[in-house]
Amino acid sequence: MQKYNCIIVEDEPLAAEILKEYIDHVPFLQLKNICSDAIYATEILCQEKIDLIFLDIQLPKLKGLDFIKTLHNPPNIIITTAYQDYALQGYELNVLDYLLKPIEFSRFLTATNKLVQKQVVPINNPRTLTDRPHLFFSVNKKKVKIFIDEILYIESLKEYIRITAKNKSILTKFQLGQIEELLTTNNFLRIHRSFIVAKDKIDAFSATDIEINGKQIPIGRSYKAEVIAVLE
Known about the structure:
elongated, 8 helices
């Protein structure tokens, strides 16, 4: 999977931390730096190849939109701001997207996916045959790789989720709705408010539960009709 280098240009530490956490959950983004002002960001752009900037508008020294105008060949830019008044100016400067704070993860993901959609992969590119889709998750201060095609099921445990895969099981701080957003293939099915399963890993099912690798997983009442319709 191709990685895109990005930076955050944000003078509010809390806002920057939220963006950093979101970036950590997106497998194709690689955070290179957090800049508290546009001047520092300019230095980073001279030192690193940056594909995407998450840019606040109200910055010290040099405002975000003015910063864009100084760039001769700017990378992709996603505006992150509490002010909707500058949206038209932003799009006139060809920004990729314009996000209003507080930013929901689902909206963030929609914006970053536009970066991937802009890239055209040749049909004869050998990487398309060898790359296995995967995600990295934070586990005990490490990033653990999970291959998408090895996931059996995912269980919500309040602020955490347990991902059970073919050869491993991990516990990571994540919301089930967030992981559902990342699982873009149609192989995954939400069967309960606390469970997502891989359809191709289902060994048996009934009107009340699903069996995967010896594990009985309940089907939620509000999900029953959709689940049965998909599986039958």
